[in-house]
Amino acid sequence: MTEIDELKVPIALRPVVEEIFGIIDAACMAVLDEEYADLARRAAAKLARKRPSPLAGGRGATWAAGIVYALGQANFVFDPSTEPCVTADQLSEALGVAKSTMGSKAKQVRDLLRISPFSLEFQRADVIERNPLVWIIEVNGFAMDARHVGLDIQVEAYQRGLIPYIPAFGPDGAAPREESQVAGTASMAAPPEAAGLLEHSSELKRQLVDFACSHRFSQQLGDAVSESIGGPVTDEGEFANLLDNFILQRPLTDGRTVVEVFASEHPDLTAADCRMLLGWREVVEGVFEIRERSGDAITAVNLVDERTYRIRANAGPRALVPMRPGLFMTARVVPIGDDWMFSGVQRLFPPSQRAAMLQLAAEQAT
Predict the structure, then answer these.
(1) Is the pTM of this model over 0.70?
(2) Which domains are delineated in the chain?
(3) pLDDT in tens, 283-328
(4) How many Cβ atoms from other residues are within 10 Å of residue 360's Cβ?
(5) Sign of the Cα pseudo-torsion (340, 344, 350, 353, in order)
(6) Is the CB of residue 297 less than 8 Å from the CB of residue 315?
(7) For residue 26, which of 107, 91, 101 has the smallest C-alpha distance?
(8) How many CB atoms lie within 10 A of CB 298?
């Protein structure tokens, strides 16, 4: 099972989380299995990384029960056709918490982590494999199973968030043996504070995008799109980058950017949140050559400014799986702590496109 250090649990909450882990492990190994225990550990760690963490209040046993019950509901644990299968009474007895209390806390957990039967982050591997709807994508107007298409299409579908992982690499994201030798075995996981910052930035970015897409800015966003491409947007990636530019860089009628308006109109934001949000105005856009994959980050050289960047993804390490050393990519990155973070959509290109990428970088530089 995943250990507490790997899950990047904040130091201050480790005693609480270790207590919850102990209850989770004992109950899951008694009536469920190790995979449930591991999913429950990950859910507890994610709750611990929230700001503020809800785990700071309430009994550890109640949180453990709510987490396990919520995950059981999302994975159909009460369905006799599944394995393992238990009843709510059996879970209640194993966890030592009343069924009504367990159910109430489970709802809180589901709301906090947005867990549902379609939440891939907290689904068991066998549940994902059995769900054919997870893998259906549209290719040139035809519905196809992503597990039976080419690797390039699988990678693009994964990057767009259409499938839970790249089938060719498996659910653990492992590279084929020969490719892992090329990439090396270096591992540099993000420190707990970096992981928490990435997760927090993801939530802030979601709120910022919702704010920018509100009716208030619809006319100005439409003008920005029209001026950029002169017509309707047909490519999702292109629109995502246009929206990112609109939010972070394009002046509004009053001279401010959307991110500046957002920061000024949300007094509940901390000073650190405001600094991070306003720091995102310093966008670096370019053509990158990926040099190294190190745990939760990649190192890439921007061929436009010839600087080296260590880049992370607020979507999590799995978003970096396709980004192998030797590939090229067009991307937008913004500062986060001592590193950089992807902003908008990236596009990957094979090493055979080196000449074209150098030409593109030269055009951007001039």
Answers:
(1) no
(2) 11-124 (1.10.472), 131-174 (no CATH), 192-279 (no CATH), 284-365 (2.40.50.140)
(3) 999 999 999 988 789 999 999 999 999 999 887 777 788 888 999 9
(4) 18
(5) negative
(6) no
(7) 91
(8) 24
